From TrEMBL:
Residues in the DNA-binding region annotation: 1-99
UniProt-recorded name of the protein: DNA-binding winged helix-turn-helix (WHTH) protein/pimeloyl-ACP methyl ester carboxylesterase
Keyword DNA-binding carried by entry: yes
SUPFAM superfamilies, A to Z: alpha/beta-Hydrolases (SSF53474), C-terminal effector domain of the bipartite response regulators (SSF46894)
GO BP: any one term: regulation of DNA-templated transcription
CDD domains listed in its UniProt record: trans_reg_C
Stored Gene3D superfamilies: alpha/beta hydrolase (3.40.50.1820), Winged helix-like DNA-binding domain superfamily/Winged helix DNA-binding domain (1.10.10.10)
């Protein structure tokens, strides 16, 4: 087999030769074998130990021997230890070939030779199986949060998309997943809200043994990444946000988004016509015919018309604007100036409200980041490589306070509703329970308060949003105080939520009504 490498190089595994422009490039046999092994396993980092086994057959050799062969390979390729344009050193782990590779000869497919695809695995969250895949390698983890649908397997069938994924994988270990309801993941009844779908990120990071990661979100993935950064800052090392938004539909103070009428008309046309080729041309005007056909196949496999309609209806309710000032993770926002899906002002809006965020406007009309993958990757790479280590953090949380004779029973029951429920206390000793978000908190409260006849029925609850320390057992501040006040004012068996919590409940399917004092009441 002959492989075409970057820089006009040909790797002939049959003749055991590396050629450039028809001339043999001198390369010792062991160095040649090192290059072949790196190219064959370019989807991941290859350790020094693996190279020793593969090239030296398990014979004892020093790490210096491996390092020497790597230098020879780089010299032959026209690379060096400083540029690392083709062979990248992943400190403490090994090496990875990051250059382009195509298969020569008539037997090659139209898209060139595909690297062996790592396995697709599953993890369980909320009783659902969520598909995920890990590629690349390096000292930093990156979690890719895609647009509204994805398909882990078919994603590898378009060369430009592969270039985008491989580029991210060259920066660190790339963790991808199909959100519940789409791609290769389970289809739940109905469509979960943004807060519930955030649980997919947490579950996949846990399954991949990732303590913290850079979240790379594009399109619909941007508000989910922002929510994750606000609620779990200790897990988010940085944010890369491309072509996104903070609110899905237009408002007087958010005039760039599509109106609700425009959105409904678009959804109706898409679901009725099911013309994903036209959708590809809208999202990526540079898409050629092959990419349009791939997009058709990918989208048709990833979701049904009913799911697409439900997803877009849910996304229409997304509004994470109130979370932006609380985000502490370093953030890089990218947006192409001619993007017809989302106005660049939407990324500017986010950048102006997330402390310290950077905004880079790029030339072009493609909404999909891989329309010109290199244009995006060359901005992301230096940002990821210069991120600081994580420090101490404060996070937003939904604070639940309970009042009434059955309060203690309710709090005990809440603490057993899942790993997201965290018992804490106010500085005066008043007990509260923290949840990741208000939708999770309200659903847990409904299950507990709905039990009858039990002591839980003689209790009432208040739910508010507060910024609290991620460490320690004591919490305080206006949001915590508000939850206690709401619980005291609530009627037995009811749940009062704050105005900030009400905003975050948008799209959750939880109905609200105001009480006599104007506080938000969760309807039973």
């Amino acid at each position: 087999m002959v492989l075409i490498l970057a820089g006009g190089l040909e790797l002939d595994e049959t003749l055991f030769e590396l050629q450039r422009d028809g001339h043999v490039v001198p390369l010792e046999p062991q160095a040649f074998d090192v290059l072949v092994h790196l190219v064959a396993h370019r989807d991941r980092v290859v350790t020094k130990e693996e190279l020793m086994d593969a090239v030296w057959g398990g014979r004892f050799v020093s790490e210096t021997a491996v390092t020497s062969r790597i230098k020879q390979v780089r010299r032959a390729l026209g690379d060096d230890g400083r540029a690392q344009a083709l062979v990248r050193t992943v400190h403490g782990r090994g090496y990875r070939f990051v250059g382009t590779v195509e298969e020569a000869g008539p037997e090659a497919g139209a898209g060139g030779a595909a690297a062996p695809r790592p396995p697709i695995r599953y993890t369980v969250t909320d009783g659902l199986h969520v598909a995920y895949q890990v590629t690349g390698g390096g000292p930093v983890d990156l979690v890719l949060i895609s647009g509204f649908v994805s398909h882990l397997d078919i994603d590898w069938d378009d060369p430009r998309h592969v270039r985008f994924l491989d580029g991210l994988g060259a920066m660190g270990r790339l963790i991808r997943f199909d959100k519940r309801g789409t791609g290769m993941s389970d289809r739940p009844a109905g469509v979960p809200d943004l807060e519930t779908r955030m649980h997919d990120v947490l579950a996949v990071m846990a399954a991949a043994a990732s303590d913290s990661a850079v979240l790379v979100g594009y399109s619909e993935g941007v508000p989910m990444a922002l929510l994750m950064a606000a609620l779990h800052p200790e897990r988010v090392r940085g944010l890369v946000l491309y072509g996104g938004y903070a609110r899905r539909t237009r408002a007087p103070d958010y005039p760039w988004a599509k109106t609700d009428e425009e959105r409904r008309a678009y959804v109706e046309h898409l679901v009725t016509a099911w013309d994903w080729a036209a959708d590809a041309r809208l999202r990526c005007p540079s898409a050629d015919l092959a990419m349009q056909r791939w997009w058709e196949r990918r989208m048709s496999a990833a979701a049904t018309p009913t799911t697409v309609r439900a997803l877009m209806d849910m996304n229409a309710l997304v509004d994470v604007r109130d979370l932006l000032p609380s985000i502490t993770a370093p953030a890089l926002l990218l947006h192409r100036t001619g993007d017809e899906m989302f106005d660049p002002q939407e990324s500017r809006y986010i950048a102006e409200r997330v402390p310290g965020a950077q905004l880079r406007l790029l030339d072009g009309r493609d909404h999909l980041p891989w329309g010109d993958a290199d244009q995006v990757l060359e901005v992301i790479d230096p940002f990821v490589r210069t991120l600081p280590e994580l420090g101490g953090h404060r996070a937003l949380a939904a604070v639940v306070a309970v009042a009434g004779a059955g309060a203690e029973d309710v709090r005990t029951a809440l603490s057993g509703t899942g790993p997201g429920a965290r018992p804490r206390s106010r500085s005066d000793g008043t007990p509260v329970v923290l949840f990741d978000g208000p939708a999770t908190a309200v659903r847990a409260l409904r299950r507990v308060l709905g039990r009858a006849p039990t002591a839980e029925g003689s209790a009432a609850a208040g739910v508010a949003i507060a910024e609290v320390s991620v460490a320690g057992d004591e919490v305080g501040g206006p949001g915590v105080d508000e939850s206690v006040e709401l619980a005291a004012a609530a009627e037995t068996g009811s749940i009062l939520v704050s105005s900030a919590a009400a905003v975050l409940l948008s799209g959750s399917g939880i109905s609200l009504r105001p009480d006599a004092q104007g506080s938000r009441v969760v309807a039973g």
